[in-house]
Amino acid sequence: MSRQKRSAVLLAGFVGGAAVLHFAVPKAFDSMVPRILPGAPRAWTYGSGVVELALAAGLAHPRTRAAAARMTAGLFVGVFPANVQMALDWRQRPGPQQVAAWARLPVQVPLVLWARNVARGTDRA
Asked: How much is the pLDDT for 97?
């Protein structure tokens, strides 16, 4: 398996795993939904899980990989406000949880770059 294909498959697994967590432990994700969004947080949790499942499937298939990778990069940018909301909301939690919440923020950058690189590699193939 080529390095580029391996990267795409790993990204698909990462996104698919996150999707499964949205359904397995939705309460953890409900608390991250920015309060400014309309509707119930659980609807946003499940909705984002469905989107992640679709993106994972798209990343796994060579014909849809490039488009899915670009959309995945967009998703990682789009969920950044939820991660900021979580960090702000968790200011009163124990120290290790606060550190984890703030540590999520810079992690978005390599995730966006990973998805972008999968898209670019697929475009060249």
From this structure: 86
